[in-house]
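To fix ideas, we quote verbatim a fold written out as tokens:
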Amino acid sequence: MREISNVILTRDNAVLLGWRGANRRSYPSCWTVPGGNLEPGESPEAAAMREMREELGVDVKRLRYLTTIETVDALGPVIFHMFASS
């Protein structure tokens, strides 16, 4: 099962969103928060911090855990780990 960590990143009462292209197999053509797949042996928190560095060049110091969502999307079963940071 795939596991994905996402971060709702806020600053000055704004939320950072990105647009997923129409060619994406899961959740095409929609707004999303930054994040990505966990690597083998990686914790959800570590994955969230790594993805922020890789995708945005942001070193997140603190994450606040929000929830975990288990669902099925176009690629099969998936677990989303949701965090917040400012």
User: Anything to note?
Assistant: The CA atoms of residues 1 and 77 lie 6 Å apart.
